[in-house]
Design goal:
alpha+beta; 6 strands; four-stranded mixed sheet; single chain
């Protein structure tokens, strides 16, 4: 079946079964085969029962026709009947038995058209259970049991359908309890599956990031290591400089990968080639930034590094809401200056707007 084709939900099927069953009970009660003292009272009872029962079935229900692409769920909260409708159902369970008994003379009160209220009220209380009002349903069942035993006698009432009504309500109670528990277990399983998928995706992302870092490390340090091994550690001055720069690149890739692009890497290499010591730390604050915002920050960082003449450079990201990156430059410690006086560069790169 196509994804958008309409299907019949379980809720719709249950609704139609409830309508059909209550309609059948009223139709059977309408087949009068004995004396009736007050026909108007009898028909009033039938109509009252049917109206309240169908209100309990249809109240708050949406259409049963849904597309297969839509999620078909039974929302426990939306199934719960309003309290005024539960009170109406309880009132019906209180007035229906004496009303029917008043409409039919004593010799006809055990006939089928006179005892239908036992099955009818049992069906109504079953509907209340399914619509998430079990205590109202059991209260109505108790009222039904009391009235039927008073009007018919305990043994005749049990033989004329009271046992079946109690069984219906009990079965519906256990059914809805099991259904709710299954729904909770399904929801919990769905949450566990989503959590497992998120963890798996995060692990996959971390593995890809580690592979990228390893590849960059091999690209940076591979040639220097190969040359070091080939010469037995006897490197020229230029080769030693290249090794020192390669070491710095590796530290940059591990400590601050989100700050790096081609321009920043080039500026860092230039600073190290002129003899500066550069330390970079990513301590948070760049999470959630768009690539365009990171590009602006990197461009300003590269410009700052190109213009810097400090012999020691410290680059740190900041969790501050305003400042994204702080660049601190210090003069050589051999100049006899205090730590505060030796700071010859202080640059705060702010978060770009938007």
């Amino acid at each position: 079946m196509a994804g958008g084709a309409p299907v019949i939900s379980i809720r719709f099927v249950v609704m139609m079964l409830g309508v059909a069953f209550t309609g059948f009970l009223v139709a059977r009660a309408s087949w009068i085969t004995g004396p009736v003292r007050e026909p108007l009272l009898l028909w009033t009872a039938l109509i009252l029962f049917l109206v309240v029962a169908w209100l309990c079935i249809f109240w708050g229900m949406t259409s049963g026709l849904r597309t297969r692409s839509q999620e078909i769920t039974v929302a426990r909260g939306s199934d719960r009947l309003p309290m005024w409708l539960c009170v109406a159902a309880l009132l019906v369970s209180m007035v229906l038995p004496p009303l029917i008994s008043a409409a039919i003379p004593p010799e006809g009160r055990t006939e089928q058209y006179a005892t239908w209220y036992i099955g009818g009220l049992g069906a109504l209380m079953t509907i209340l259970v399914i619509r998430r009002r079990p205590w109202a349903a059991w209260s109505g069942t108790a009222v039904l049991a009391g009235w039927s035993m008073v009007l018919l006698g305990p043994i005749p009432a049990l033989g004329l359908g009271l046992v079946g009504s109690v069984v219906w309500v009990t079965g519906a109670h256990f059914f809805t309890f099991a259904l709710d528990r299954a729904a909770r277990d399904t929801e919990r399983l769905g949450e566990l599956q989503r959590t497992a998928s998120a963890v798996q995706a995060a692990q996959g992302s971390q593995q890809r990031e580690r592979r990228i870092q390893v590849q960059r490390a091999l690209a940076v340090a591979g040639p220097v290591l190969a040359r070091t091994i080939a010469t037995g550690g006897r490197l020229s001055e230029d080769e030693r400089t290249d090794a020192r720069i390669a070491e710095g690149r590796l530290r940059d890739e591990l400590r601050g990968p989100r700050l790096l692009d081609a321009d920043v890497r080039e500026a860092l290499d230039a600073a190290r080639r002129r003899g500066a010591m550069v330390t970079m730390f990513d301590e948070g604050g760049l999470d959630g930034l768009a690539e365009e915002q990171l590009h602006v920050i990197r461009a300003e960082l590269a410009q700052t590094l190109r213009s810097a003449r400090s012999e020691r450079l410290y680059i740190r990201t900041s969790p501050d809401e305003r400042v994204a990156v702080t660049v601190v430059g210090r003069a050589s410690s051999t100049l006899g200056l205090s730590d505060e006086d030796s700071v010859d560069l202080w640059r705060e790169i702010e978060h770009p707007a938007g």
